Amino acid sequence: MNGKITFVIIPQKTSRIFRFQMHQKYLQYGKYAFILLFLLTGYVVVQYSFYVWNLRSYNQLVEQIRKQNIHYGHILEQIKENSSILSELSKFDGKLRILANQTVVNPSFEMQEEKPEFTPASQPEIRNLENQSLIVSSINQELQEEQVQTSLRSQSFYELKNFLVDQKEKLQSTPLIKPVKVGILTSPFGIRIDPFSGATRMHYGIDWAFLPFTPIFATANGLVEKSYYSLSYGNVVVINHLNGIKTLYAHMAKSEVKVGKKVKRGELIGRMGSTGNRSTATHLHYEILVKEKPVNPETFILEELPPASFYSTEY
């Protein structure tokens, strides 16, 4: 034996026979090469499978971050809206304290610092797969903080709502709206130049001027205490509300209510005129008295409140 292997190939269509020899060591090398190629192919297949799996996980993580960013933006928008509402409510704080006759309306009602608006520029940059868990963890932490703040703000709303419900009767009997739908404020409460004498004089109400017979409405629930004619104020209606509060409507062309009538906020009680010798033109003189002492009506009027929703349509 010379250590060689002879291979014979006999074609079917020709009579020529092909022979070639190969040394056994080359055959052994071929076997090793085949095993190495098989292992290499297996390694490539495994690595490719890991690559596909990692790519899929990466895409899922990117999609998760995208959804969380959207959710994060929605939460910030909601908090921004809540902050805006709370800011408006804070403007009423002083007036609500007067209405409720309390030093503090809602002890737990505290404005929190508003978060910055969420913009695409504030979204975390996705750089590589290794930092995705950190990014997701950071986003989740911020979301949890925002949810806590939202929960606190919601609790404040619920407390304020419950407070207003408890004070419903008191608020319904407190003059919160303007007595006219339309009109021009011609004279505020306070010291002014008297239009008749030219001297400085206290003006105990506020005046709205408009067209004759403009409807005048009750500014709160109450009982008509007086309906009379005065030389100075002309046709006058006085309504008695709860907590020692009264409202006075003067210089009316006519009264639409009688003494003893129960009226509701927004109910028609008279029409604008120019009666009485202290009137220079068609207008309404409106006063609020607390324990028989005149106070500035503008401290009671909640201008942000949509007055039309309180007015009766029966003119």
Ordered list of secondary-structure elements with their pairings:
Elements: E1 4-9, E2 18-23, H1 24-91, H2 93-100, H3 132-166, H4 168-172, E3 184-187, E4 190-193, E5 200-203, E6 206-209, E7 215-217, E8 222-230, E9 234-240, E10 245-255, E11 262-263, E12 268-272, E13 283-290, E14 293-295
Antiparallel strand pairs: 1-2, 3-6, 4-5, 6-13, 7-12, 8-9, 8-11, 9-10, 10-12, 10-13, 13-14
Helix pairs in contact: 1-3
Describe this structure as you would to a colleague:
With 315 residues, the chain is of the alpha+beta class. It folds into 2 domains: 1-166; 184-310, Glucose Permease (Domain IIA) (Distorted Sandwich). It contains 4 helices and 14 strands. The chain has helices at residues 24-91, 93-100, 132-166, 168-172, and strands spanning 4-9, 18-23, 184-187, 190-193, 200-203, 206-209, 215-217, 222-230, 234-240, 245-255, 262-263, 268-272, 283-290, 293-295. The strands form 3 sheets. Strands 3, 6, 7, 8, 9, 10, 11, 12, 13 and 14 form a 10-stranded antiparallel β-sheet that branches. Strands 1-2 form a two-stranded antiparallel sheet. Helix 1 runs parallel beside helix 3 (132-166). The longest helix is centred in the N-terminal third of the chain and has 68 residues, at 24-91. 19% of the residues are buried. The model is unreliable at 100-130 and 304-315 (pLDDT under 50).
